[in-house]
Amino acid sequence: MSIKFEHVSYIYSPETPLEKKGLDNVSFKLQDGSFNAIIGHTGSGKSTLMQHFNALIRPTSGKIEIAGTTITPETTNKNLKELRRHVSLVFQFPEAQLFENTVIDDIAFGPKNFGYDNEKALASARFWLKKVGLPEEIGKRSPFELSGGQMRRVAIAGVMAYEPDILCLDEPAAGLDPEARKQMMALFSEYQKEGHTVILVTHNMDDVANYAENVLVMEHGKMIKQAAPRDIFKDRNWLQEHHLEEPKSSMFAAKLQNYQFAKLPLTIADLVKDIETNLKG
Ligand SMILES: Nc1ncnc2c1ncn2[C@@H]1O[C@H](COP(=O)(O)OP(=O)(O)OP(=O)(O)O)[C@@H](O)[C@H]1O
């Protein structure tokens, strides 16, 4: 059950002086269980695209197939609960949406909303509190007494606690220190390896290089390229032309270097396999 966008366009404030094309004839497919990144300049349409994944906004034209649901311009808000249980969207600075009296109740809110009984919701909340790296005793505290980084973890645990099949993240590590960013990205990577689909909007090219298998590049509302990170980042001229940065990470450079020193392959098929193994590993 892949995710499929077919000729999706979206216009903000149509037929008014403020009319603005947010998406322009976007088509692509994403594989189940893949780690995808959406990159592009500010204002290129990344967040607009992201909000289509759980029908928070619906296409002005075109069609989306996702998690067994078809989204078209005619789709209404009715019957979207099932879609939103499967496809979850985490906005930038999700900690702004915490509201319960205790951390554990805040994390359990999502699971309860999607039909877990009280006991199961609390068990899931305790499990995810630990998974995001917070000690058990924090569960009893008010989320508003925590640091910004801890609040971010609570908010993300609240989404992961009902285990959506498709996790959409808009700059989830923005403003976190490098260690916290790494832990957060490792958490999403593990979630993907367990079989879920992850879609990440980011300006951080190191995260793209280190974690994504598939990259969508947005520019002026159009998707101008879809490829593996190595294919996106190997062409410096193309990157410069589109004002995109290269990853700085030594990890990605090391992966490429390992590949150069890998044992001499015997056939083209071996060579391709070798490259893939080295870049994946
Ligand atoms: N609510 C809105 N009303 C009108 N235009 C909007 C609205 N939201 C976004 N836009 C416009 O649509 C275009 C795409 O915006 P979008 O937020 O999707 O870009 P983005 O790539 O996510 O940017 P950033 O990296 O800054 O978050 C921009 O030109 C933006 O100004």
Give a brief description.
This protein is of the alpha/beta class and 281 residues long. The protein is 38% helix and 22% strand.
What does this entry look like structurally?
- With 281 residues, the protein is α/β, with parallel strands linked by helices.
- It is 38% helix and 22% strand.
- Helix 3 runs parallel beside helix 5 (148-160).
- It has helices at residues 46-50, 81-86, 103-113, 118-131, 148-160, 178-193, 205-211, 229-233, 236-241, 250-261, 268-280; strands spanning 3-12, 20-30, 35-40, 61-66, 69-71, 87-90, 166-170, 197-201, 214-219, 222-227.
- The protein is built from eleven helices and ten strands.
- The mean pLDDT is 90.
- The strands form two sheets. Strands 6-7-8-3-9-10 form a six-stranded mixed sheet. Strands 2-1-4-5 form a four-stranded antiparallel sheet, with no helix packed on it.
- Adenosine-5'-triphosphate binds next to strand 2 and helix 1.
- It is an enzyme of class 7 (translocase).
- It is a peripheral membrane protein.
List keywords for this structure.
281 residues; alpha/beta; six-stranded mixed sheet; four-stranded antiparallel sheet; 10 strands; binds adenosine-5'-triphosphate
How do the SSEs run, as a string of H and E? EEEHEEHEHHHEHEHEEHHHH
Q: Strand arrangement, largest sheet?
A: 6-7-8-3-9-10
**Average pLDDT rating:** 90
Global Rg: 20 Å
| Uncertain runs | none
State the helicity in percent bands.
25-40%
How many DSSP E strands? 10
The helix/strand class is alpha/beta
Main sheet summary: 6 strands, mixed
The amount of beta strand, in percent, is 15-25%
Q: What distance separates the N and C termini?
A: 26 Å
